[in-house]
């Protein structure tokens, strides 16, 4: 059991959150039934309080059943709010389930049936009402069913147009209701569809400037999803951050080339998780650190607590390692050397006619440039030493 003075103990300022669906995951998979009993939303919130999380996020139907009457809904929401308050848990993000009900089998905002598209909008507006009532300021949209098994069913650019139209509509709704939501779009290459439109964070970053209210819309990159696409997750996160679009983040882990595993954060690729944590901490990302993962199917609810504590603990250990990396003298010396400037050489930078003529006129000594050492082997080994506790 961790002591209260343990520096790897989660605290509210770390902004660790879990989806209601993550700790409530019952271990059902396409081949086998649930292994853990159903747990009420209130008990899940209590569990999150017990393990030291800061917040909980939810889909509309994680809390309110899809066919609930308005009075049932209000009763459920009241009781949930009470248990959040009692357990000191906040709700920073809300989202909508547009993938479970069979009505969405052809997609939601991109479905071919206009009535399904309209229903998807209605359901999302109601999920925004719910999120706003719970105090959420971030609204995530994950288009899990927005995709195809066969491209015979629609033109892919029509799907893009439909998606744009829906996001524009939802931005207007949020403004009209004065909800102040920031929309965070979450990409995934496949699963549950054969191919999902907007397969990577980069695709969404390219869509956002084409929206009516681009300032309201950013991304919610997920470790597992970019890893499934074979990409370097941190690079996508960095690009989103640099564009001012990192509105939220889904942390978990994943081995490439597999189904969507949603593993405990840092349980598969310690090194890439390290670069990610180091990036988030170096740039001062202030948003929630959301774990979208679940416990092994072999666990009971005690094991779910181990899982949740493990996600947060690993994040904090990696944060500590990042601080060590940043203050390591040898690492800093190497970093300085590899980007050292040679004086009196014309540079690129901002274009000017004069600068360009100087650059064109300069004769570069390629052989001398090539002599400069780039000790990346040493730099990487120092990183490994720090990660393995040998430094
Ligand atoms: C998944 C997704 C989801 C979304 C969630 C929030 O692969 O199932 O990551 O968990 O994050 O639906 O919109
Ligand atoms: Mn996922
Ligand atoms: Mn996710």
Describe the structure.
The protein is an alpha/beta fold and 391 residues long. The chain folds into 2 domains: 12-322, Alpha-Beta Barrel (TIM Barrel); 329-387, no CATH class. The chain has 15 helices and 10 strands. Strands 8-6-4-3-2-1-10-9 form an 8-stranded parallel β-sheet. The chain has a two-stranded antiparallel ribbon with strand order 5-7. Helix 9 runs parallel beside helix 10 and helix 11 crosses helix 15 (376-387). It is globular. The mean pLDDT is 97. The structure holds D-gluconic acid and manganese (II) ion (2 copies). The site of D-gluconic acid has 10 residues, from strand 4.
Low-confidence stretches: none
Order of the strands making up the biggest sheet:
8-6-4-3-2-1-10-9
Give the SSE order as H and E letters: EHHEHHEHEEHEEHEHHEHEHHHHH
Report the oligomer: single chain
| Intertermini distance | 26 Å
DSSP summary: helix tally: 15
Class computed from helices, strands and strand pairing: alpha/beta
List of distinct ligands in this structure = D-gluconic acid, manganese (II) ion
Largest sheet: 8 strands, parallel
CATH class assignment of the largest domain? Alpha Beta
